[in-house]
Structure to design on (146 residues):
């Protein structure tokens, strides 16, 4: 068999290297007031047999400025966050809360029943409940003794 001289585990992974480069660039520009915008908003996701629950940190975002969409196994959150209010006679020293439009898409390991998705915004935390379609919920099968 033909071999190019190094083990399969050492084959170059372009995506991994690009992600590392992005992380390094984020660290370089962070002292200049930039937050990691590609990961905004910060989210937590929990999954079980019935579906998933996502929470997203959206302080200062109004519910009318949030758009949630679902397609197959992907949830997308879009929104707009107001900018920093100017303080008279002061200049910004650090601005870590990004303003403007944002989009965040999260893929799940199963399809989502879009008709049953619910979302609630409370105290700056968005909670989205994402149920699986009924026909795709795993069923437990009991084993009978004969």
């Amino acid at each position: 068999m033909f071999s190019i001289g190094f083990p399969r585990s050492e084959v170059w992974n372009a995506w991994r290297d690009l992600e590392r480069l992005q992380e390094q660039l984020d660290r370089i520009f962070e002292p200049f007031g930039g937050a990691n915008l590609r990961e905004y908003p910060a989210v937590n996701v929990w999954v079980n047999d019935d579906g998933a629950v996502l929470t997203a940190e959206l302080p200062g975002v109004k519910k009318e400025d949030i758009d949630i969409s679902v397609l197959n196994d992907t949830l997308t959150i879009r929104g707009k966050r107001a900018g920093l209010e100017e303080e008279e006679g002061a200049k910004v020293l650090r601005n870590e809360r990004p303003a403007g439009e944002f989009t965040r898409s999260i893929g799940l390991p199963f399809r989502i029943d879009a008709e049953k998705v619910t979302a609630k915004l409370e105290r700056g935390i968005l909670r989205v409940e994402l149920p699986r379609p009924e026909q795709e919920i795993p069923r437990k099968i009991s084993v009978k003794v004969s």
User: Anything to note?
Assistant: The beta strands are 43-48, 51-57, 66-71, 74-81, 100-107, 118-122, 125-131. The chain has a mean pLDDT of 83. The radius of gyration is 22 Å.
